Amino acid sequence: MRKSANLLVVICFSVMALLLLLQVYWIINYYNSALKDFEKEVNLAFEDGIKKELSLRCDTIQHIIENKLLDTTAFTISARFDKKDQKYVYTVSANGNAKDKFSSSFSLADYSKALPKDKRDTSVRKQVASRLALLMREEDLEQHIIYYRTQKLGLFMDEQTKKYQFDTARLRPAFNIYLKERKIKVPYSFIVKKEDSTNNKGIAASARTKTYPIVTKAFSTYRYTDNQRYVRAMFKSPTSYILSRMGLMLFSSLAMIVIVSGCMFVILKSLFREKRLSAIKNDFISNITHEFKTPISTVSIAIEALSSDEVNQNEDKRKRYLTHAKNEIERLNLLVDQVLKMAIYHEGKSTLTKEKIAIDSMIKQLINIHKIASGKDISVEYLNKSGTDCLLADETQFQHAINNILDNAIKYSRDQPEIKINILRNHNDLIISIEDNGIGISEKEIPAVFDKFYRVSTGNRHLVKGYGLGLNYVKQIMQQHNGWYKIESKLAQGTTVILGWPI
After folding, report:
1. Is the pLDDT assigned to residue 35 strictly greater than 60?
2. CA–CA separation, 175 vs 166, rounded Å?
3. Does residue 65 contact residue 133 with C-beta atoms inside 8 Å?
4. What is the pTM of this model?
5. Which residues contact 480 (CB under 8 A, 6 or more apart)?
6. Which of 287, 286, 280, 333 is closest to 466 using CA atoms?
7. How confident is the model at residue 256 (pLDDT cuts 50, 70, 90)?
8. Domain 262-349 adopts which CATH fold?
9. How far apart are CA 412 and CA 437, in angstroms?
10. How far is residue 433's CA from residue 421's CA, in Å, rounded to a whole number?
11. Which end of the chain is more exposed for a tag (fewer CB within 10 A), N or C?
12. Cα–Cα distance between 407 and 413 in angstroms, integer?
């Protein structure tokens, strides 16, 4: 039994350790996978943010160029009809320099209108300026190149691109938009450098990378007026972000560990409880066997003696042997009766016959019986402060409960037992407290003293004879009366048993 129990404990703890290791392994793998996904997502968001920042700059410069082309003091827009293509071709030239114009005029594939004679009608000029500004955006700004279609227009565009060049202050709100779409709220910072590589995703370790361990790939800013030619985004550790996304997995893993641990705990607790009960039962069987053998042996000797003529002819001896036999048979009968009563209580077959009990007279009568039967010099202090001398309960069971406690108080006390019995009333309970000056019970054994067959001393030899049934009997009686019970004790200082009877 012990080897099997120890093996089961080892197996249970091994399974728990393996389960825990597997959970840790899965969580670490999931975390690493989530970290890679995080790096991928922030890189995609950063690329989108870079494009958005460029798009915003292009929008601004395109609008400025369009307005500049409509400025008649700066540029002139003219139109001529091409007979071959049967459409109007438009020319843009700088005012003040007739040669500063497109070397070849441009045409609009889906637009062909003559310039209105009314100078106030600017519809055609607006269409031409809008189309030309869009063309310059797509061919020049978005490709980071400036074509000098006219010297004046080229210089103006160069001036505007320097004025509205890359800026992290403009990049941040654009980047935040795409981070928000991905529900990423990890603090970050930008790092701009003169030299970097857009093909290299790594960056040299530094004190800054310790604070910001996640670094995106670099993008060119096409800003040549200073050292801000490449930009990266650097993120602080995303552990809290990843763990928040792992919430369900962590909760389910923890729940599974708790459930499995709880099941194993219940199994092991039941196993050790059964193991303890088995040891207690064996101890009980050993003790009760000894108790049965003693009276049986005494009766056998008495019967053998009575069968001889010498004893039969001696009236005193005959009566003495008969008295011994009778006492031992009554002792056996009492023991069998106790075991049977415990079985009846355990199966719930006992019935209550409640009646009014005169508490004072009943307890005093029980005290006197124990004083005579024990053969010890017993001192009993009895005090009833409850204000009542009657209790509605089963008289026989009440006697058994008080008898068992008094019996223990006397058996486990010294040569001169001192017992204090106090009766109090607390709300709807009549409280009977029985205190002795006995050997006491250790704190760790107190929770088990009301268990069936349990005895404080172990093994098959006890200084005080008993069967481990008394307090369990008291427990069953109190439960049947819907009352409560409690024990307080300290080694070498005595024990107090408290019974709460409903009234």
Report:
1. yes
2. 13
3. yes
4. 0.54
5. 345, 350, 352, 394, 397
6. 287
7. confident
8. Helix Hairpins (1.10.287)
9. 9
10. 6
11. N
12. 10
Q: What pLDDT is stored for residue 166 in this prediction?
A: 92
How does pLDDT run across 185-222, given as a tens digit for each residue? Answer: 999 999 998 888 776 655 666 667 788 889 999 999 98
Q: What are the start and end residues of each CATH 1.10.287.130 domain in the chain?
A: 262-349
Q: Are 498 and 421 in contact (CB under 8 A)?
A: no
Beta bridge partners of 231: 192, 219
In angstroms, the CA 61 to CA 157 distance is: 8
Please provide residue 219's backbone torsions phi and psi, each rounded to the nearest 5 degrees: -125, 145
CATH 3.30.565.10 at 351-502, yes or no = yes
Distance CA 115, CA 492 (A): 120
In the chain, the amino acid numbered 153 is L
Instruction: Between 345 and 275, name the one with better pLDDT.
Output: 275
Parts of the chain belonging to CATH 3.30.565.10: 351-502
Q: How far apart are CA 173 and CA 56, in angstroms?
A: 11
Residue with tokens 């970050």: 188
pLDDT higher than threshold 70 for residue 318: yes
Local structure of 418: helix, strand or coil: strand
Give pLDDT tens digits for 274-316. 777 676 666 666 666 756 666 777 778 778 777 777 767 777 7
- Write down the pLDDT at residue 55: 94
